[in-house]
Amino acid sequence: MKTLPIFACILMLVTATGTLAQNQPITIDANASQLSWTGYAEVGSWAPTGTIHLLKGQLTRVGSQINSATITMDMTTIQHENDRLQAHLRDEAFFDVIHFPTATFALRSLTGTTATGQLTVKGVTRSISFPVVVSEENNGLRLKGRALIDRTQFGIRYNSTSFFADLGDQAIKNEFSLSFDLITKPIMKAARQRTAR
Prior knowledge:
This protein has three helices and nine strands; from the N terminus they run αββββαβββββα. By secondary structure, the protein is an alpha+beta fold. It has a single domain, classed as Lipocalin. Strands 2-3-4-5-6-7-8-9 form an eight-stranded antiparallel beta barrel. Residues 1-21 and 190-197 have low confidence and may be disordered.
């Protein structure tokens, strides 16, 4: 008569272990990953571009489906080949990196190839959606895509025609793009086997 309760406990333990394996955090390799930004002038073809360093990132998945992810960007590393523009992007007119050294994105859903989540920049959080392609590479995952972000939603109004008139060729588009190529560290073999079952 005691066999049934013992069997039930073992079954619960095995089930819990499988659940933990499926939801095991997967670390994004900050050194192997790349983030790049591009801004756009309202007039002409001027489109400065540069990079931002990924500070850290992590995701979880159930089976083959990614169900959550969080990435943190080091805004103090905003880079451009022109030192003056680089300093301008880091000052109060743009990203004010002294007071807001990081920006974060928290994934809420990944439906098909559309990611939706909460982006926090300069202490302001807004919902954004963008396309992303997920593939398996080198015993890990690779996530590539490009998000268009309206900077004015985060209080960055510098030379925006939505707020200032008569800017001429000094006007800057509200939207800038953030391209990403995120590579995870290798996923533990045991966890991969449990997830595949």
